[in-house]
User: Fold this.
Amino acid sequence: QQQVKQSPQSLIVQKGGISIINCAYENTAFDYFPWYQQFPGKGPALLIAIRPDVSEKKEGRFTISFNKSAKQFSLHIMDSQPGDSATYFCAATYYGNNRLAFGKGNQVVVIP
Amino acid sequence: DVKVTQSSRYLVKRTGEKVFLECVQDMDHENMFWYRQDPGLGLRLIYFSYDVKMKEKGDIPEGYSVSREKKERFSLILESASTNQTSMYLCASSYSLGNTGELFFGEGSRLTVL
Assistant:
């Protein structure tokens, strides 16, 4: 059973547009929600993360929105650039756990 | 910077061969992981280790084994490679995940089994 479900599977966005990727989770014990970014030929790298005590976290053009009651969180990429073209994975874990539950990933393509 | 190094970026092996994938990290991390990445299936955990000589099965351990004799090194072993093990293999390391959720990944080893 997949613990974190990610949608859509792929996304094409015009340069300057907003990319939105959604994730839903089941386990209410999760208390840490990171997003990873993976460029072709590279391993994933942590992009931004949020804890459920806040509803939003922003770092530059990247924002996580968190809805605890709906058990959903999303990544927004504002003013999307071609350099943002990558695969994005959402994930979840909880304190004391040594495993991350990953979504299946979303390929974002930003066209000039 | 944290560095996770996977010794082989590309490998081609024949069915039935024994395959070793090596991974070394330089940040004294307790935890090390092996994932495989396939299109449409995302990142699937094969095995992980939270200490030297300790290992735990992940979600898809069948057909794989691991070895962690030193803290910095974690090896993935395919005892008898099969074509359905053709994949991208990613090694990762971390401190306690529950605190930061940050995994540091290597660049991957692309294995083709003929």
